[in-house]
Structures are given as structure tokens and as C-alpha cells.
């Protein structure tokens, strides 16, 4: 029997496997950031250990840092401590650091691919759940806990139980105004926020093959929001083209050898998945979430479900408690729902393609008077590229704030927080209670939907603006 893409990458990295025990998996690239690495380094120091492969470990600063220009002396003390600790750790252990003071910095899942660190067939880990993003390149990439970060730093290996495989087939043409974000929100709405537990998704089908790398990353990014351990997309010409020439990409004869190997990283015709789900891309609409988990989403033309429409009593309870927190009612449409804040950013949707699309909607229009709107590029490179294309001017003339790279309002771990009770149209990946600020209410959507919400001050169907 043939192998799936996941099985090929898994098998190539198993160092040891005792029956009934987790596998020892070799890790090709380890990404670290300021929030989940300090305790791991502390553990290494305590035990007198070195970093096994400093050359395969890459650090950036993203979660806690302010996205406004601010001297570090004026930062909240936690953030300053985390950043200074990361600098010290990278210096002491000989690790490459993409520092906020340098030219290369940004959200770990935006910078890794940009630098060419992320490559097909690799195992990639990071103390961060959205490491699944890198699966867009046909890598096996997933988040790990802080004690595992220490383990990988010390050994370059990780203990892992082999997950099962889950094919998600997306076939057909997307309609105008329907994006990769809508594909993944629709998948999670259909399969549930825990529907992928124990599995690695492989996104397949004609609609996936047509997507850019940025769009593929948007989809893989949210695999974890669908409960999966990781999400993968087989590499193809789009992938190779994206990687070629990037700083850490193979060069010369190494490049040819690498591409020849990468071409083998496809699921064999006769491979069998443990589960499958198929979606018709032509039936999808722009999506909006109404609840407090990413599975609680509906097409913009739809209505919030009524409790009696849900079979599972646990889901009924979760609907009602989510709606209470959200200040929304069963059966209500989301179209027309006023918003207070619009956040375009996060490792889901802060790449240049996302900003270009959002800018198209905003161009020549104004942000509604009562709305605070911000654009937070995913990296310094995205920011520079956007500025070279004049996107910053389009956003600022419309009334958006134009910020520095970082996680920003994706999570309330830095200066950018939404107030209690505020509705945030957000391009990020999590709408958990308090995620964007204590009491704040997140409505997840695509960048063009968020841009449309900024202009109208309420949730609208972006297709009416195209
Ligand atoms: C802070 C970090 C550990 C966390 C994660 O693991 O995902 C964050 O990135 C998030 O998105 O919630
Ligand atoms: S942008 Fe958001 S989801 Fe992504 S790593 Fe940062 S906090 Fe996590």
C-alpha cells in the first residue's frame, strides 16, 4: 500500500520506535519566540546542557512586543524582560535571532517561511500552536510545550505519538470574494473545533492546488483550530517558486537535489487516509464567526443557529453560553452587526497578499467614524513591501493605523487590547473569550471582509463591494 504525504515525512524522521511507545522524532528546524522559550533555556542552564543544533534553531520576537514605535525603556516590564532574556539566551547559546532592532523580524510563522527556513519534507516545531502554518510547504510542523522546547533544544529530537491521517478535499472554483480564510472557517464550522483531534489534516483538491503560498499558509495555520495536530499541503511548483532564492533555501546543485526529493512528497495514488471530508469550493461564501470557538461560524448571508437545530446537548449549551458572552441572539443574522474595532493582522492573515487584497477594498474609502482600525503587517519585510507598493498610504488615508510587525491584537498579551464588550472584526484565528482583551468579542473573517467591515462600521457581504 502506498503512503500519504504525512507518512512519508514521518517515516523519514523516526530515529527510534519501541513498540507501544511514542516515536523519537528528529527535528529539522526549531523556531522559538520570547514567550515560551525562557523557562526552556533556564532548564538547560540548570542541567548544564548546550543547544544541540544552534544552526537549526531560529528565534524571533513577536508576541509581547509593542507594535508602536517605543523605546524599550517605555515598554511594559514583562515584555522588556522577555525580549532581553531572549537576546541573552540567543547570544549565550549561539542561536540566530531576528531581533526587533534588525531588518528581519516579525511573527514567527511569517518570518520562518520568508527566510526560507521552512521547506518541504521537514519536521518543524515551535513552542506555539500555530506552527501548523508551515505545513503549507509539505512540512510536518506542530506546536510543542515549553518542556518539549527544552527537550528539542538539548537533543534536536522529540517524543511523539503517531497521529492518524485525515484528507480534506476542496474541489472546484471559489466564487469572487471567497478566500482561503473562508475555506478554513467553513471546514472548521463543518467538522467542529475538536473534529480533527488525533489527526493530521492533508488539504487536497483542485481548489487547494490553485492557492498561493500565503493562502495555503492561512489554511494550514488554522488546522489547530480544527483540533488537528498539524495540517499539510503537498509541495508543487508554487511551493518551489516561493522558496527559491530565499536566504536559507538550498543553492546550486543542492537546490536541484532538494527539488527532486520534494517532488516525491505527494500522497501515493493507493494510499489510504483514516478519514476524509470533501467540500465544494463553489458553494462556499464569505464566513463570519458568531461564537467563542472558531467552529462557531456561518456564511455572511446566514443566521446564527437556534439551539433546537443542534443535536448534541453539549453543543447547545456551548452555543448559548457563547451567545451570552457575545451579546448576540440565536437566529440573528451576522450581516449588519456593528463593529467597534477592525484588526487586520496575525499569522493567519498578515502577509503581503492579505494586505493587498484588503487595500483594494479600502482604497478611496474611509473607515466608519466610530471604528478604530489597525493594520499590523506580519513581518518587517511585509511592512517594507507594502510601503514600497503604497499600501500604507491607502490604509492611512482611509483612517487605519499602520503598525510595526508583531502579534498585536491577535492576543491580549501586549499593548494592543480591545475593550470589554467591544466587537472586533478580526483576521486572526481565535475568538476565545477574552482573547483580544478582557470581555472583548471577536468576529473572525477574511481580510477583505474585515476591510469591508471597517468601511461600513458593521459586518457586510464584501461581494457587494466588488
Ligand atoms: C503564546 C503562545 C504560546 C500561543 C500559542 O501557543 O499559540 C499564542 O501564539 C496563541 O496564538 O495563542
Ligand atoms: S499572531 Fe496570534 S496566533 Fe499567531 S503566533 Fe501570534 S498570538 Fe499566536
Task: Explain the overall architecture.
The structure is a single chain. This protein is an alpha/beta fold and 466 residues long. The chain has two domains: 5-263, 2-Layer Sandwich (Aconitase, domain 3), CATH 3.30.499; 287-464, Aconitase, domain 3 (2-Layer Sandwich), CATH 3.30.499. Helices cover 31% and strands 17% of the residues. It is built from 15 helices and 19 strands. It has helices at 5-11, 38-47, 77-93, 108-114, 146-155, 180-191, 206-209, 213-221, 237-243, 252-262, 313-326, 352-362, 380-388, 391-398, 447-456; strands spanning 14-16, 23-26, 29-33, 57-60, 96-98, 123-126, 140-143, 157-160, 164-171, 199-204, 230-232, 275-280, 287-289, 297-299, 341-344, 372-375, 401-402, 423-426, 441-444. The strands form five sheets. It has a five-stranded parallel sheet with strand order 5-4-3-6-7, sandwiched between helices. A five-stranded parallel sheet has the order 17-16-15-18-19. Strands 11-10-9-12 form a four-stranded parallel sheet. Strand 1 (14-16) and strand 2 form a beta hairpin. Helix 6 runs parallel beside helix 8 and helix 12 (352-362) runs parallel beside helix 15. The radius of gyration is 21 Å and the shape is globular. The mean pLDDT is 97. The protein binds 3-isopropylmalic acid and iron/sulfur cluster.
Q: Terminal Cα separation, in Å?
A: 47 Å
Query: Helical segment tally?
Result: 15
Low-confidence stretches: none
| Mean pLDDT across residues | 97
**Helical residues, percent:** 25-40%
Number of strand elements: 19
Strands ordered across the widest β-sheet = 5-4-3-6-7
Going by CATH, the architecture of the largest domain would be 2-Layer Sandwich
* Residue fraction in strands: 15-25%
CATH class of the largest domain: Alpha Beta
Domain count, please report it: 2
Largest sheet: 5 strands, parallel
GO molecular function: 3-isopropylmalate dehydratase activity; 4 iron, 4 sulfur cluster binding; metal ion binding
Function: Catalyzes the isomerization between 2-isopropylmalate and 3-isopropylmalate, via the formation of 2-isopropylmaleate.
Family: Belongs to the aconitase/IPM isomerase family. LeuC type 1 subfamily.
Catalytic activity: (2R,3S)-3-isopropylmalate = (2S)-2-isopropylmalate
Amino acid at each position: 500500500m502506498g503512503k500519504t504525504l504525512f507518512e512519508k515525512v514521518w517515516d523519514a524522521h523516526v530515529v527510534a520506535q519501541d513498540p507501544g511507545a511514542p516515536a523519537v522524532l528528529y527535528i529539522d528546524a526549531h523556531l522559538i519566540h520570547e514567550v515560551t522559550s525562557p523557562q526552556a533555556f533556564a532548564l538547560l542552564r540548570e542541567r548544564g546542557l548546550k543547544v544541540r543544533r544552534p544552526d537549526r534553531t531560529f528565534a524571533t520576537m513577536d508576541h509581547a512586543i509593542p507594535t508602536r514605535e517605543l523605546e524599550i525603556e517605555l515598554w511594559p516590564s514583562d515584555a522588556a524582560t522577555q525580549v532581553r532574556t531572549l537576546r541573552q539566551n540567543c547570544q549565550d547559546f549561539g542561536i540566530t535571532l531576528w531581533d526587533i532592532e534588525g531588518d528581519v523580524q516579525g511573527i514567527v510563522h511569517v518570518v520562518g517561511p520568508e527566510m526560507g527556513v521552512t521547506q518541504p519534507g521537514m519536521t518543524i516545531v515551535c513552542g506555539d500552536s500555530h506552527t501548523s502554518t508551515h505545513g503549507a510547504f509539505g512540512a510536518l510542523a506542530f506546536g510543542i510545550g515549553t518542556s518539549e522546547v527544552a527537550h528539542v533544544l538539548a537533543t534536536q529530537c522529540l517524543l511523539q505519538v503517531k497521529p492518524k491521517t485525515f484528507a480534506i478535499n476542496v474541489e472546484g472554483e471559489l466564487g469572487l470574494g471567497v478566500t482561503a480564510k473562508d475555506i478554513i472557517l467553513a471546514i472548521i464550522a463543518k467538522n467542529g473545533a475538536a473534529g480533527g483531534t488525533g489527526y493530521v489534516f492533508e488539504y487536497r483538491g483542485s481548489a487547494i492546488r490553485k492557492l498561493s503560498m500565503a493562502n495555503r499558509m492561512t489554511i494550514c495555520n488554522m488546522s489547530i483550530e480544527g483540533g488537528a495536530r498539524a495540517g499539510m499541503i503537498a509541495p508543487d511548483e508554487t511551493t518551489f517558486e516561493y522558496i527559491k532564492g530565499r536566504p536559507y533555501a538550498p543553492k546550486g546543485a543542492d537546490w536541484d537535489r532538494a527539488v527532486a526529493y520534494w517532488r516525491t512528497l505527494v500522497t501515493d495514488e493507493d494510499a489510504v487516509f483514516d478519514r476524509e471530508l470533501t467540500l465544494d469550493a463553489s458553494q462556499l461564501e464569505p464566513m463570519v464567526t458568531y461564537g467563542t470557538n472558531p467552529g462557531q461560524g456561518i456564511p455572511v448571508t446566514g443566521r446564527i443557529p437556534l439551539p433546537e437545530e443542534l443535536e448534541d446537548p453539549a453543543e447547545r449549551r456551548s452555543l448559548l453560553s457563547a451567545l451570552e458572552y457575545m451579546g448576540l441572539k440565536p437566529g440573528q443574522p451576522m450581516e449588519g452587526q456593528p463593529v467597534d474595532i477592525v484588526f487586520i493582522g496575525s499569522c493567519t492573515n498578515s502577509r503581503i497578499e492579505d494586505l493587498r487584497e484588503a487595500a483594494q477594498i479600502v482604497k478611496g474609502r474611509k473607515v466608519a467614524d466610530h471604528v478604530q482600525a489597525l493594520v499590523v503587517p506580519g513581518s518587517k519585510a511585509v511592512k517594507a513591501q507594502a510601503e514600497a507598493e503604497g499600501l500604507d498610504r491607502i490604509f492611512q488615508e482611509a483612517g487605519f493605523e499602520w503598525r510595526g510587525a508583531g502579534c498585536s491584537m491577535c492576543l491580549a498579551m501586549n499593548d494592543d487590547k480591545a475593550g470589554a464588550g467591544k466587537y472586533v472584526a478580526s483576521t486572526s484565528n481565535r475568538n476565545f473569550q477574552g482573547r483580544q482583551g478582557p470581555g472583548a468579542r471577536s468576529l473572525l473573517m477574511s481580510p477583505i471582509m474585515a476591510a469591508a467591515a471597517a468601511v461600513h462600521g458593521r459586518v457586510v457581504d464584501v461581494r457587494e463591494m466588488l
